[in-house]
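Office hours follow-up: a student asked to see two folded examples consecutively, so here they are.
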Amino acid sequence: MITTERLHLRPLTENDTDWWVHLHADEEVARFVGRYTPDQAAARLHAIRRQWTERGHGLCAVELRATGETIGRCGLHWWEQFDETEIGWTFARPHWGHGYATEAARAVLDWGFGPLGLDRVTAMIHHGNTASTAVARRLGFTPLREDTVLDRPCTVHALDR
């Protein structure tokens, strides 16, 4: 679907359930995005697939082009309660610090502002997630407001086309 120099992004499906559970089982990953049981992961992935069908976008699995290994997720999520499209990224810990989140998110933003025609994208980053805040800043996001997402305080950053 989206290809960069090092990465390939494809829509997540229910077939990714075991991988999703494994990704979120890491304590450092779960600190900001939570843990999932297999049933919770299947339900979340079903909702992601539904968003792809209804809105034409959703979260993607991020794979290394060189090996095909799935190393994270990145994509767009529509929040009805906020009337906003958010970009999100989560990567397995061995792949932190290699620029993959920035590379994947930049490609997703190009897709969102280009073919999808979005005017604004937000990034909802939980307090204390300094790595994601740094990615958002590298991409040009600026703080918009403080809010609560999934019962946790966060800073909502925004980037306009």
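And the second, which I mentioned at the end of office hours:
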Amino acid sequence: MHEFRDPVTDSQRSFPPKGQPQITGFNRIGLWSLYIKEIRRFLKVQTQTVWAPAVTTLLFLIIFTVAMGRSGREVLGVPFATFVAPGLIMMGMMQNAFANASFSLLAGKLQGTIIDLLMPPLTEAELMIGIVSAAITRAVMVGGAVALAMWLWPGVELRAAHPWAIVWFGLMGATMLAIVGLLASLWAEKFDHNAAVTNFIVAPLSLLSGTFYVISNLSPLFQMISRANPFFYMISGFRFGFLGASDIGNTNEAVFGAAIGVGVLNLVLGVITYRVLKSGWKLKS
């Protein structure tokens, strides 16, 4: 005699209990899919997201060079255009990292498609890493496009005096603004809120961070204010990588403290943003 077996029971035994997660550990495939999705999103309009910032930044260089550099003015021992170029590259990278990271969640909330980001089996850390990594990628692309435009402009000399500083401060600056952009998108309820952060926080801190001048020309009070601006250390450290001189110092030892500081700042901002994202604030409530 053959033993009777209930097919329903057997099929049920092949499935795990309800509510038991099937993807344990790090969801590499999901994270990679989110990262590629974010990359494709801004590459579909790369004229606007990558090349337009290069043109805008080049206009800054042209205007300030014509206005202040006609007489062969030198700053930190180099022509004014060469002095300004690294700061403009860093400024373009940071602003575009913020713009990219601040769009996805905010657009999802406004269009009612936020469930497409919250429903997949991604932890809050994986969601954060995917969005921030895509923003850093865009920042690097914009930085490359701006650097190419600067290199082609007559009177600008780009050379890597300290490559480690270029890489470190470039990545740290992009990471900081990507994290801030993600945090802003969690807080914002409409595009006006996001634009307010850009216009009243990101842009002023970028322009008043020593991009176009050395802070030694300022009064002691404004020098102190400038040194409290984290953008100052990002741009000055990045400039040190190209010129070997900056407002922070002219040696690796002088800049190393700032390098550690910006890394710690990014770690703190990352933890805060992760906790806010995990709480579901303005996403799940």
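Two things to take away from it. Residues 29-279 form one domain. The beta strands are 74-75, 78-79.
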